[in-house]
Amino acid sequence: MKEQRDHFLAMQFEAQHAHYMRHYGKAAFWLIERSKEPVGRLYLDEWENELRLIDIALMPEHRGRGLGGAMLADVMSAAVSRGKAVRAHVEKSNPAQHLYARLGYRVIEDKQVYDLLEWYSKAGAEQPDGMPPGAVGLALGARKVAVGRGLSAVFGPQMVSGPRKILR
C-alpha cells in the first residue's frame, strides 16, 4: 500500500512539475528544509515587473508555525531589492489567505476560484511590514540559502527527480 501511495505521489509531482515548467520555463524550484529535513517547496518565477509565486506548500505538520510567513518574507525582501511586486494566485478557500492579508497582500483580480493577490513595498521599505529580515537569496542563483526560523532552501532541478524527498 505504501509503495502504491509513493508511486502515485511521485507521478502526481512529476505531472505538476512538468506543467509548471511548460508554463513557467524559467521558474526556480526550491525544496524547503528544516534541520536538513524537507518541510515544503516553493516555485518562483521572475518576470519583468514582478516575482510570481507559482506554488508554495508546507507539509501539514509544519503549517501554522510561522514558516510560511518566513518563506514569504524572503520572497518579499527579494522583490524589494528588485523594485518589483509579488503576485500569486491563491484559492479563495485556502486558509493561507489570512496570512497573505496580514502581510499586506491585496486582491487585484477575482479569477472565480482564485484571487490574484499582489504585494508591493511601500516606497523606501527595506523589509516587509512586521517581518524579520531574512536572507535575501531566493531566485538569486544560490544553491542553498538560509531563509529564517531555522529554514534553508535548496535550489534545484536536482530535486525534481526525487519527489519522495518532498512527500514523506
Fill in the keyword field for this structure.
8-stranded mixed beta sheet; Aminopeptidase; disordered C terminus; about 170 residues; single chain; alpha+beta
Radius of gyration: 16 Å
Number of domain units: 1
| Major sheet characteristics | 8 strands, mixed
Q: Helical proportion?
A: 25-40%
Helix-and-strand structural type: alpha+beta
CATH level-two architecture: 3-Layer(aba) Sandwich
CATH superfamily: Gcn5-related N-acetyltransferase (GNAT)
Number of helical stretches of at least 4 residues: 3
Distance between the termini: 14 Å
Beta-strand share of residues: 25-35%
Mean pLDDT: 75
Strand order of the largest sheet: 5-6-4-3-2-1-8-7
**Order of H and E elements:** HEEEHEHEEEE
Highest-level CATH class: Alpha Beta
DSSP E strands, number: 8
CATH third-level topology? Aminopeptidase
How are the elements arranged and paired?
Blueprint: H1 2-23, E1 28-34, E2 37-46, E3 50-58, H2 67-82, E4 85-91, H3 97-102, E5 106-111, E6 114-119, E7 144-148, E8 151-155
Parallel strand pairs: 3-4
Antiparallel strand pairs: 1-2, 1-8, 2-3, 4-6, 5-6, 7-8
Describe the structure.
- The chain is globular, with a radius of gyration of 16 Å.
- Strand 2 and strand 3 (50-58) form a beta hairpin.
- The longest helix has 22 residues, at 2-23.
- It is an alpha+beta fold and 168 residues long.
- The chain has a single domain (2-165), classed as Aminopeptidase (3-Layer(aba) Sandwich), CATH 3.40.630.30.
- Strands 5-6-4-3-2-1-8-7 form an eight-stranded mixed β-sheet.
- It is built from three helices and eight strands.
- It is 26% helix and 33% strand.
